[in-house]
Amino acid sequence: MFTQDGIVTKEMFESSLPSPQRRRKGPYAVMECYQKIPCNPCRTSCKFGALQATDDLNALPVRDAEKCTGCGACVSACPGLACFIIDETYSEWEAAIRIPYEMLPLPKEGEKVDGLNRAGVPVAEVRVLKVQAGKILDKTNVVTIAVPKKYLYDIRNIAVRRKEHG
Ligand code: SF4
Ligand code: SF4
User: Fold this and answer.
1) Is the pLDDT of residue 165 over 70?
2) E-strand spans in the chain?
3) What is the pLDDT of residue 161?
């Protein structure tokens, strides 16, 4: 299932994508959550009924793409940093991807940063579109980046090149 180092494979990612018609309509959530652990903040944060309700705390999240609005509440709520929002309608060549981001410094809007793969290896330069600082202690910052569509599977993190002084 996973690669030897526990990384989500391209096949796993592609099998979690909505239908081509839904992908053309706008942002949708992808949960890269494949291990049954007692966790459900994604489900409790979703106000649109897009994550199947269950009494089983260990159940994996099942996203109904037709109900998902791409609101992103699950991204900042997920302690496993496993929820992402993908918007393939952003432009012809780029998708906007919302990622959870726990590092400091936070990037700035418009800044060019390194787009990293799941192993932390730089793949391509990406542009920061939006930064939403988690306002509540247990909420994670969310950064939206413009990613060339050919890297839709690959890029799941960023590295800010700038160093903060003082
Ligand atoms: S993006 Fe919003 S609507 Fe979609 S699953 Fe997450 S919380 Fe629910
Ligand atoms: S909150 Fe995150 S880690 Fe927890 S079940 Fe949902 S997707 Fe998985």
Assistant:
1) no
2) 28-31, 83-87, 94-101, 112-116, 122-132, 141-148, 157-159
3) 84
Taking residues 129-143, report their average pLDDT.
86
CB of 73 shorter than 6 A to ligand 2: no
The label of the residue with tokens 């920061």 reads: 128
Find out whether 95 and 154 touch, Cβ atoms under 8 Å. no
135, pLDDT greater than 90 = no
Which contacts qualify for 146-149: CB closer than 8 Å, 24 or more apart?
Answer: 146/90, 146/91, 146/94, 146/95, 146/96, 147/94, 147/95, 147/96, 147/97, 147/115, 148/93, 148/94, 148/124, 149/88, 149/93, 149/94, 149/95
The alpha carbon of 114 and the centre of ligand 1 are apart by a number of angstroms equal to: 26
- AA letter at 157: N
- Residues 102-126: pLDDT tens digits? 998 999 999 999 999 999 999 999 9
Spacing, Cα 74 to ligand 1 middle (Å): 6
